[in-house]
Amino acid sequence: MAKKIVLVALVGVMVLAAAVPVAPREHDVPGPVSRTLYFTKYLPDGTVTTGHLELQPEERAPDACQALLEQDPAIQDYVRDNAVDLYFLLSAGSGLKFAFPPSLFGLSLLEVELSLIPNVIYCNYRGGEGETTIIPVVSGGNATSIYGDHRLLTIGFVGILGWSTVFTFSNTFLVGFTPYVWTQA
Q1: Distance between CA atoms of 73 and 174, rounded to whole angstroms?
Q2: Residue 171 falls within a domain, yes or no?
Q3: What is the pTM of this model?
Q4: Nearest to 161 by CA among 116, 103, 122, 118
Q5: Residue 154 domain-assigned?
Q6: What's the confidence (pLDDT) of residue 136?
Q7: C-alpha–C-alpha distance, residues 138 and 18, integer Å
Q8: What is the pLDDT of residues 8-51, one digit of tens each?
Q9: Strand, helix or coil for residue 14
C-alpha cells in the first residue's frame, strides 16, 4: 500500500511539474529594430526570478544572458565564494530539455523554507545541432566543448534558462554555473 501511495505522489508531482512554467521565452517584436527576450533566473538562494531584455537583431540571446550574469551581484558573490567547486556552462541546441526548479519540492517547518532537492536540468541534444562548453571557474582545468548529439545533466544550477516550460523540445539555451555537471556524447 505504501508503494502505491509513493507512486501516486511521484506521478502527481511530475504532472504538476509539466504544467509549471519556469523559464524564458523569446519572441520577435514587429520590425527589425529589436526583439524581447523573456527569461527566468535561478539565484543562489533558491529563488527564481523573471525579467526581460531588449536584444538587437545581431545580438545572440546566450551572450546577452552571460553579460547579465556578470552584472548580478548575488551570482558574482556565489561564484567568488564557491569558485573551486563550480563550472561555467554555455549550452544550446535542439532536443528534449527539462528543468525542475528548487522550489518544486519544499518543506516549510517553523517558518523556515527548505528546498529538499536542488534544481535539476537535463538536456538531450539531437539532430547534430547541440553545443555545450564547460569551463572550470578556477583555472587549472581545461575547458570542454561538445558538439552534435549529446546529453547534459546539471544539479544545483545557478543562471538563466532559455525555455518557457518545465519540458521543451525547442532550439534554446542555458548559461550559468553549477557544482555538478555530467555529459555523455
Answers
A1: 19
A2: yes
A3: 0.75
A4: 122
A5: yes
A6: 92
A7: 36
A8: 444 343 434 444 444 444 554 455 678 888 787 888 887 878 78
A9: helix
Sign of the alpha-carbon torsion through 117, 41, 89, 78? negative
CB 52 within 8 A of CB 23: no
Alpha-carbon gap, residue 6 to 16, rounded angstroms: 15
Judged by DSSP in three states, 179 sits in coil
pLDDT digits (tens, 9 = 90+) for 81-136: 988 889 999 999 999 998 887 654 444 455 444 555 678 899 999 988 899 999 99
Cell numbers given for 2: 505504501
Q: Is residue 52 part of a domain?
A: yes
Residue 131, amino acid: E
Residue 139's pLDDT is 72
Cα–Cα distances (Å) from 136 to 77, 87, 139, 148, 176, in that order, read: 17, 4, 7, 21, 12
Cα angle for residues 34, 36, 38 (degrees, 5° grid): 165
How many Å apart are CA 111 and CA 19, to the nearest integer? 27
- Residue 160: its H or E element: strand 158-161
Nearest to 87 by CA among 16, 141, 18: 141
Count how many domains the chain has.
Answer: 1
pLDDT at 91: 94
What range does the domain containing 92 cover? Answer: 34-184
- Residue 12 inside a domain? The answer is no
Looking at residue 70, what is its pLDDT?
A: 92
| Residue 19, phi then psi, degrees to nearest 5 | -90, -10
